[in-house]
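Quick one:
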Amino acid sequence: MNTILGIAIGIVLFTIGLGVILYRSTGNMNRRKFRNILRASVVSYVFLIALFLFVLTPGIVNAAQEGNSGSGLGFIAAGMSTGLATIGAGYAVGAVGSSALGAVSEDPRILGKTLIFVGLAEGIAIYGLITSIMILGAL
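Output:
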């Protein structure tokens, strides 16, 4: 666990250092170099999240299985349903909201129609929350 924490702190400090370097040398940086650095940073964060999941999740599930055989996986399922639905809703609201803002700036009369689409996109998070409540109720 301390090794994973050390890796996480190292990646965060590396990213902060690169940000400071990029901020100071904005005129010298070309777009391809910036994309490569950004890609390396994103890949390192994805690796770190996967490492956390693969190292910590089995311990949580095994600890929960000592008292009740299926409750550990049920809690993970409830958390994942809410989390993934929220990520999906955020992506949908970002895409629909920016398009709606552009459409309303051209024709202010369609504001009500665009709010309906943004509300439908926000409903995705509610579906995930309802699913997680149903999973927790079945435990």
